[in-house]
Amino acid sequence: MSIHPLPPPREPTGLGRLPAARWFLFIGAVAGVAFVTGVVVIMVLLSGAFDLNPRPEVTAQLQELNVALIVLFAVLLACGVGLALIVRHAVLKPVAQLTEQVRTVAGGDFDHALHVDRPAELAELSSHIDSMRARIVSAWRVASDQAEELRRSNGELEQFAYVASHDLQEPLRKVASFTQMLEQRYGPQLDERAKQYIYYAVDGAKRMQLLINDLLDFSRVGRVTGEKTVVESGAALDTALENLSATIEDTGAVITRDDLPAVTGNRLQLTQLFQNLIENAVKFRSDEAPRIHIGAVRSGAMWELSCADNGIGVEPKYADRIFLIFQRLHARDVYPGTGIGLALCRKIVEYHGGTLWLDGDAAGRGATFRWTLPPAGDDDD
Ligand SMILES: Nc1ncnc2c1ncn2[C@@H]1O[C@H](COP(=O)(O)OP(=O)(O)OP(=O)(O)O)[C@@H](O)[C@H]1O
Ligand SMILES: [Mg+2]
Asked: How many A from CA of 237 to the centre of ligand 2?
């Protein structure tokens, strides 16, 4: 996890474009000119007064005034120079120091501490900014550690699901085939009840095989069949329809489609996606023959595809639940299945960077599923 580089600082507007140091320089220069002009004017006036040959008491008074003015000018000059030094050392330098530190942090060195000792106001400001930096960095580290931990445990879980389902296949095949052999070889010696028990055992083993195969498919997404290329989604749909041709023929399903786009993805997974959605649309049909439409519209940077049917539909309150693994809304003897199809579809779409959802606002009866996919590389305008 990384923080993106910060955008360049916003440009100041109007008079704010001039740095504060230049303002001080400008005002200092005006004050200096006024000061020198004042000194010259007063000196000229005083020498004019001396030229008039005033009375001795007035001359003495003028001389005292002259000395007082020289002292005053000297004090003013000292104050001016002192002020300039204070502004430079107590304001401008610490501001430049703080700016430099902030720039370093903004440049990506988030551990760089911000600190200036003076003046008091800037010291307080820098300490507040620094505690803000430290808190954000620590929250970011926690979030980043958690994300890493989540990624790791997700990977482990997927690995576990894969290994478990893969390694379970063999013993299960043995259970199913030996139970069937038992029935074939000793069938005549068995009574009705024993035959029924064997039937249940074989049925259970077959169902478990189905579940394990689905689980294996599920855990493969993003692991084994991960390569992404430019895929014509129309071609993926054709393959899915071919795989489902027997079911489609049996049920008299009519499938129509828009012009389907080329997307970036994995051909095998996109075929699985269409296949599961169309299989559902056919399986959960109403009394009418299934009518299924595959649509595609451009939605921002992605393509939005849809699969709409005229079947029994899904109650809106189950719109999220149906995507959970092994979640089904009907008894297995009414509609067969393991409840993994939609979870697999969602995993495939998310692996492609899109989202899959049940459209609760779709007009008409039946169910409409929508999902987004990234366009093919040369099409992402
Ligand atoms: N097109 C649809 N019309 C009505 N209900 C649907 C539709 N698609 C899915 N559902 C509901 O969502 C549930 C989950 O679907 P999912 O495809 O995951 O499982 P399944 O079809 O029952 O089993 P599997 O696909 O693993 O064989 C289904 O049991 C069904 O109740
Ligand atoms: Mg299904």
From this structure: 16
Around ligand 1, the residues with Cβ closer than 6 Å are: 214, 276, 280-281, 284, 309, 311-314, 322, 328-330, 337-343, 367
CATH H-level, domain 229-379: superfamily: Histidine kinase-like ATPase, C-terminal domain (3.30.565.10)
300-327 burial, b at 16+ Cβ within 10 Å, e below that, comes to eebbbbbbbbbbbbbeeeeeeebbebee
Contact 246, 283 (CB under 8 A): no
pTM for the predicted model, two decimal places? 0.67
Q: What is the pLDDT of residues 76-85, one digit of tens each?
A: 989 989 998 9
Q: Where are the beta strands (DSSP E) in 8-69?
A: none
Residue located nearest, by CA, to atom 29 of ligand 1: 328
Q: Which residues contact 155 (CB under 8 A, 6 or more apart)?
A: none
Ligand number nearest CA of 343 is 1
Q: How far is CA 327 from CA 221, 332, 339, in A?
A: 19, 11, 5
In 187-266, which ranges are continuous DSSP H helix? 192-220, 233-243, 245-251
User: Given this model, what pLDDT does residue 79 score?
Assistant: 93
Which residue type sits at 377?
A: G
Please provide the DSSP assignment of 25-37 as one string: HHHHHHHHHHHHH
Domain spans, the chain: 15-112, 149-220, 229-379
